[in-house]
C-alpha cells in the first residue's frame, strides 16, 4: 500500500471534479427537461451514448474535434426535437408515468440502432491532439484534457445561466416552468417552448457524451450506468434545480474519486450510499423545494 | 347460448384464481417447447409481484430486479454453500427479498411519483454492485453456478426435477399459492386502501389511513413475490446470472406489466407470455431484439396503454354491461 500524499490527494480531487463536471452536465439536461415538461427523460443516458458515438464518428469524418463540438449537440438536439414532437407530445396530459415509460422504450431502440450502426463492441477513443499531455498545477501534473473538461463545463453552465436569466427567451422558460397556464394565457405557444427545451436538454446530453468519450469506454450500453448515476445527482441536488445539479454533480464526482483512492472496492457503491443518506436527512435534496416530492 | 357465455364470464370473474390456474394447467401444451413455458410461468410471477405495486398501488418502481436477484442469489447460496434442501432454499430466498424490500422500501417511499422511480432504480444498483463484488459467495461476473436440484423429495414421493414438464407443474404449485395470496390481498380492506392510494393519495391520507405504512407493506409483499420468482428461477436454471440484478431486468418487469395490462389480475401473465414468446421468435430472426421490443413497447405506451389483456377486459366489461342493461 502506497502512502497517500497531499499531492496525490489534490490530483484525485481534480479528477473527481472533472468526473463531476460530466455528471453536472447530464443532471442539468435532466433538470431542465423536468423543470419545464415534468418529464423524466429515461433516454438521457442513451442520448449521452449517441453523443459519444457521433462524436467519434464525426471526428473521424471531419478530422476536427472543435468542429465536432458544434456538430454533435446539433445532431443529438435534432434527434431530441423529433422524439419530442412525435413521441412525447402525444402523451402530455396523460399523467407523469407515460412520458417516462415512453422514453424508457426509446432508450432500448437507441441502444440497438447504435449496435446496428457501429457494432456491439464499441469504438476505441482517443484524446484530441490539441489537448494531449499534462499541465503542472503547482501540486503535480494533471491531464490537459480533464482540465479542458472542467473549463468546457463551466462555459456551458455559464452560457446556459446567461440564456435563462438574461434573455427574453429565458424569461419565457422561467415563467413556463412556474405556471404554464398563465404563460399560455399571455399568448405564448408553450408547446413550442417545451419542444425547444427538450431539444436543448438532449443537445447538452449529447455534448457531454462527446466530451466524456475520451475518459471512458464507448459502447452501446455506456448510457445505462450513467443514467443511474445522473439520477443520484438529481436526487441529491434537488429535482429541477440548476444550481443543485452543478453542486451535486461535482460532489458526486469527488465522492466517487475519493473513495476510489481510499477504498477502491466501494467506489461504485459510495455515490448510492450518499444518495441514501441524503434521502434520510433531506428527501427533497439540497436545493429542492420541500413538499415537492415528499 | 348468449346467456351461458355471460354466466361463464361472470363465473370466471368471480373465481379469478381458479380460472387462471385452469389456463396455466393446459398452458404447456400450447407452447412450442416446455422450457419456454417454464420461463413464462416464472416471469409471469415476477410481473404479478411487480403489478401489485405498479398496477394496483400506482408506484412505478424501476428497481424490482433487486428482489428477483436477491431471491435467486440467496436461494442459490443456500443450496450451493449451505447444502440446504430445495424448500429451505425457497424460504431463504423469499425471506431475504422481503428484507431487501423493507430496506429499499423504507428509503424509497420517502419520495413520490417519478422520484420514486429514480430512487428505486438507484437503490437497485447498490444490490447489483454488492452481489457483483461479493465474488466468493456469488461468483461475481460469471454468476452463481451449480444450484443443482435434481429431484423434489416429499414424504413418500420423489419428483424428477430435470424433466421440464415436471418442473413446470412443481413451480405452478408455488405460483398458485402466490396468486391466491395476491387475490386475497386485493379482496381485503387493505387491497381497497392501496387502490385508494393509487387513485388519490392525499384523500386516502385524509380518510385516516396510514399511507406510508400501507405503501411500505405493499412494497415488501411485492418484493417477496418477486423474490419467490427469483428463487424458483434459480432452481430452474441451476445458475443465478448476474444479469438478474441488472437495470434491464427491472425494465423487463415494467414492460411485461404494461404489455399485458397493469392493474389486471391476469395481465402480467399475458405480458410475460407475449414478451418471452416475442423474444424467442425475434432472436431467431435478428440479434437486434432490444430495438424490436422497445418499439413494440412504445406503440403500446402511445396507443394501447391498457395493454393486451386490459383492453380485452375493458371491452368484455362493456359488453357485459350492455347485456345487463338490455335484460
Protein model, in words:
The complex is a heterodimer of chains A (about 290) and B (about 325). Chain A has about 290 residues and is an all-alpha fold. Chain A has helices spanning about 5-35, 45-60, 65-90, 95-120, 145-165, 170-180, 180-185, 190-210, 225-235, 240-260, 265-280; strands spanning about 135, 140-145. In chain A, strands 1-2 form a two-stranded antiparallel ribbon. Chain A starts with 5 loop residues before the first helix and ends in a 13-residue tail after the last helix. Chain B has a single domain, classed as ABC transporter involved in vitamin B12 uptake, BtuC (Orthogonal Bundle), CATH 1.10.3470. Chain B contains 15 helices and four strands. In chain B, strand 2 (about 150-155) and strand 3 (about 155-160) form a beta hairpin. In chain B, helix 4 packs parallel to helix 6 and helix 5 (about 85-110) packs across helix 6 (about 115-135). The longest helix of chain B is centred in the C-terminal third of the chain and has 27 residues, at about 210-235. The mean pLDDT of chain B is about 90. The chains are: A mainly alpha (about 290), B mainly alpha (about 325).
SSE diagram, text form:
The complex is a heterodimer of chains A (294) and B (327).
Chain A: H1 6-37, H2 44-62, H3 65-88, H4 97-118, E1 134-136, E2 141-143, H5 144-166, H6 168-178, H7 180-185, H8 190-212, H9 223-237, H10 242-262, H11 267-281
Antiparallel strand pairs in A: 1-2
Helix pairs in contact in A: 1-5, 1-8, 1-9, 1-10, 2-3, 2-4, 2-8, 2-9, 3-8, 5-6, 9-10, 9-11, 10-11
Chain B: H1 2-14, H2 16-26, H3 34-54, H4 65-80, H5 86-108, H6 113-133, H7 135-138, E1 144-145, E2 151-154, E3 157-160, H8 164-187, H9 189-199, H10 201-206, H11 211-237, E4 239-240, H12 247-260, H13 267-285, H14 289-303, H15 307-326
Antiparallel strand pairs in B: 1-4, 2-3
Helix pairs in contact in B: 2-8, 3-8, 3-11, 3-12, 3-13, 4-5, 4-6, 4-11, 5-6, 5-11, 8-9, 8-11, 9-11, 12-13, 12-15
Amino acid at each position: 500500500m502506497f502512502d497517500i500524499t497531499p499531492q496525490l490527494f489534490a490530483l484525485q480531487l481534480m479528477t473527481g471534479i472533472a468526473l463531476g463536471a460530466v455528471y453536472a452536465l447530464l443532471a442539468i439536461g435532466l433538470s431542465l427537461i423536468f423543470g419545464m415538461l415534468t418529464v423524466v427523460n429515461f433516454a438521457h443516458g442513451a442520448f449521452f451514448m449517441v453523443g459519444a458515438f457521433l462524436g467519434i464518428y464525426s471526428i473521424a469524418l471531419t478530422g476536427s474535434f472543435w468542429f465536432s463540438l458544434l456538430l454533435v449537440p446539433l445532431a443529438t438536439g435534432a434527434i431530441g426535437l423529433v422524439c419530442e414532437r412525435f413521441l412525447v407530445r402525444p402523451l402530455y396530459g396523460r399523467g407523469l408515468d407515460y412520458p417516462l415509460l415512453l422514453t424508457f422504450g426509446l432508450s432500448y431502440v437507441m441502444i440497438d440502432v447504435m449496435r446496428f450502426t457501429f457494432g456491439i463492441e464499441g469504438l476505441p477513443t482517443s484524446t484530441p491532439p490539441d489537448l494531449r499531455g499534462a499541465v503542472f498545477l503547482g501540486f503535480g501534473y494533471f491531464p490537459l484534457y480533464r482540465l479542458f473538461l472542467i473549463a468546457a463545463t463551466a462555459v456551458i453552465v455559464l452560457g446556459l445561466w446567461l440564456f435563462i436569466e438574461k434573455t427574453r427567451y429565458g424569461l419565457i422558460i422561467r415563467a413556463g416552468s412556474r405556471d404554464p397556464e398563465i404563460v399560455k394565457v399571455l399568448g405564448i405557444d408553450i408547446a413550442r417552448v417545451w419542444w425547444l427545451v427538450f431539444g436543448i436538454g438532449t443537445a447538452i446530453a449529447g455534448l457531454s457524451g462527446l466530451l466524456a468519450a475520451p475518459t471512458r469506454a464507448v459502447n452501446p450500453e455506456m448510457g445505462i450506468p450513467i443514467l443511474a448515476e445522473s439520477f443520484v445527482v438529481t436526487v441529491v441536488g434537488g429535482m429541477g434545480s440548476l444550481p443543485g445539479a452543478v453542486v451535486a454533480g461535482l460532489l458526486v464526482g469527488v465522492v466517487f474519486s475519493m473513495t476510489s483512492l481510499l477504498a477502491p472496492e466501494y467506489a461504485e457503491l459510495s455515490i448510492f450510499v450518499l444518495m441514501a443518506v441524503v434521502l434520510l436527512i433531506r428527501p427533497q435534496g439540497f436545493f429542492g423545494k420541500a413538499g415537492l416530492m415528499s | 347460448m348468449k346467456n351461458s357465455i355471460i354466466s361463464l364470464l361472470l363465473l370466471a370473474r368471480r373465481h379469478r384464481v381458479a380460472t387462471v390456474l385452469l389456463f396455466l394447467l393446459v398452458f404447456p401444451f400450447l407452447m412450442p417447447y416446455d422450457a419456454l413455458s417454464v420461463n413464462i410461468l416464472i416471469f409471469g410471477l415476477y410481473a404479478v409481484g411487480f403489478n401489485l405495486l405498479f398496477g394496483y398501488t400506482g408506484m412505478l418502481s424501476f428497481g424490482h430486479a433487486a428482489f428477483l436477484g436477491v431471491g435467486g442469489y440467496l436461494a442459490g447460496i443456500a443450496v450451493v454453500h449451505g447444502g440446504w434442501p430445495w424448500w429451505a432454499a425457497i424460504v431463504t430466498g423469499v425471506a431475504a427479498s422481503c428484507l431487501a424490500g423493507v430496506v429499499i422500501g423504507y428509503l424509497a417511499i420517502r419520495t413520490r411519483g417519478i422520484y420514486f422511480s429514480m430512487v428505486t432504480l438507484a437503490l437497485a444498483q447498490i444490490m447489483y454492485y454488492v452481489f457483483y463484488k461479493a465474488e466468493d459467495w456469488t461468483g461475481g461476473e460469471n454468476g452463481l453456478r451449480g444450484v443443482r436440484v435434481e429431484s423434489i423429495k416429499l414424504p413418500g414421493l420423489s419428483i424428477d426435477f430435470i424433466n421440464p414438464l415436471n418442473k413446470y407443474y412443481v413451480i405452478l404449485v408455488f405460483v398458485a399459492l402466490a396468486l391466491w395470496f395476491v387475490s386475497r390481498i386485493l379482496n381485503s380492506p387493505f387491497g381497497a386502501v392501496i387502490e385508494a392510494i393509487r387513485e388519490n393519495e392525499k384523500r386516502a391520507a385524509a380518510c385516516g389511513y396510514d399511507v406510508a405504512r400501507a405503501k411500505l407493506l405493499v412494497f415488501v409483499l411485492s418484493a417477496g413475490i418477486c423474490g419467490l420468482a427469483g428463487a424458483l428461477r434459480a432452481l430452474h436454471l441451476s445458475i443465478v446470472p448476474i444479469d438478474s440484478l441488472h437495470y434491464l431486468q427491472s425494465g423487463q418487469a415494467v414492460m411485461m406489466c404494461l404489455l399485458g395490462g397493469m392493474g389486471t389480475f391476469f395481465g402480467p401473465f399475458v405480458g410475460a407470455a407475449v414478451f418471452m414468446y416475442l423474444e424467442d421468435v425475434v432472436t431467431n430472426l435478428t440479434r437486434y431484439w432490444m430495438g424490436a421490443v422497445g418499439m413494440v413497447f412504445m406503440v403500446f405506451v402511445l396507443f394501447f396503454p391498457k395493454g393486451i389483456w386490459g383492453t380485452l377486459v375493458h371491452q368484455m366489461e362493456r359488453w357485459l354491461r350492455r347485456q345487463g342493461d338490455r335484460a
